[in-house]
Amino acid sequence: MTEPYRILQSVFGHHSFRAYQEEAVNAILAQKDIMMILPTGAGKSLCYQLPSLVMEGISVVISPLLALMHDQITALSTFGIKASMISSMQSPSEIQETMQACRKGELKLLYVAPERLKGESFLNFLQTLPLNFFVIDEAHCVSEWGHEFREDYRQLFRLKLYFPQTPIAAFTATATKIVEHDILHQLSLSNPLIIRAKVERDNLVIKADYRNANGREQLLAFLSGFEKESGIIYTLSRKDTESLALFLGTHKILARAYHAGLPTEEKNETFRAFLNDEIQVVVATIAFGMGIDKSNIRFVVHMSLPKTIENYYQEIGRAGRDGLPSSTLLLFSNSDIVEHKRRIGEQPTSEYQKVAYEKLEAMAKFATSQVCRHQQIANYFDDTINPCVTRCDNCVDGEKESVDISHEALKLLS
Length: 414
Ligand code: ADP
Ligand code: MG
Ligand code: ZN
Fold this sequence. Notes:
By secondary structure, the chain is α/β, with parallel strands linked by helices. Helices cover 41% and strands 16% of the residues. It has 17 helices and 13 strands. The strands form 2 sheets. The chain has a 7-stranded parallel sheet with strand order 3-4-2-5-6-1-7, with helices on both faces. The longest helix is centred in the last third of the chain and has 18 residues, at 351-368. Zinc ion (ZN) is lined by residues 372-374, 387-388, 391-392, 394-395. Keywords: ATP-binding, DNA damage, DNA recombination, DNA repair, DNA-binding, Helicase, Hydrolase, Isomerase, Metal-binding, Nucleotide-binding, Zinc. Belongs to the helicase family. RecQ subfamily. It catalyses: Couples ATP hydrolysis with the unwinding of duplex DNA by translocating in the 3'-5' direction. This is DNA helicase RecQ. Its EC number is 5.6.2.4.
């Protein structure tokens, strides 16, 4: 048995590698730069955690969210793996302590917030360590063409300047070809191995429809097919999450609201209850997302148009992680486009606003188009597939009569 395989079983307790994992692990062990584009929940973390255990030194993971880092470190500790983090949320003495542990070789993984790399002294500190490789988690954050650009990720160009010999492994769930190239360029990856999973999720049935004046009735009709099964309903505003959760309650559907404005305790409790199937539905803004690891989500509904196909794909991708048939429904209306435009800014002037408009337009086209939904998503991510025939409304229902409205929708964006 190879060393990675042995560790997979003895440390992580998994029987076998999932698709693409072994390839990534071997490339990292061979000191190659890699970039991996694999859906959320596919198991990207293992691809860098496992090689870190095989290698002698320490691996440094750049991650955009403190909560994500925290979850990872907690999960690693249950496997008996020593990991820690350095971020602005910690006191100077805590940071000193962690740095000391790194120097003594007590840690296998160090999680770091990207803004750390601005400081010369921190880079100098890293240079004193026996580094295995750098991990850039959620690597799409480095690109302005992506959907979650973060200014601090721009610092990452320093890595190859300061550490030309240290390989970089970049991970993301969604990247168009443009974003992919941008990431390679921004990080100066050298001759990287690129591992890109196929985009199509063939256990998902995808539907989209105009939301009429009784959007909630449309929702109830859909939900009647999912008694007692878990699902997520996305709304645009925080207020809507709460009123819709109440509305569902009056129809005997156990639902709770989730948005960034709620107290942390309440959010954690909702999260926990959902994971344990104590509630059926979470009505959420896009704040409910990163890091959700629940395999039996049977449906995802959007009560309004998402702002990008990247967001939409990631959100519907939370359904059916266990591979069982699952459904998604997008309900949209032209007023959603107006609202998104208001949020972006009426007249797009900055580069950021122009990109946001383009992405919104692609999303609106997707919603109103008569082409196979799976095929449209695949095309958007530069993958080529045949029409699904049986797993989307456009393939199943054929021609629709709503072409006029879609004209209206696209006019709003021109
Ligand atoms: P990603 O970062 O791609 O979104 P994660 O790394 O968070 O996904 O992994 C998602 C889940 O998959 C975790 O619960 C993890 O334990 C599990 N997992 C990863 N690899 C395997 C494997 N080879 N066998 C079984 N479960 C795995
Ligand atoms: Mg991840
Ligand atoms: Zn189809």
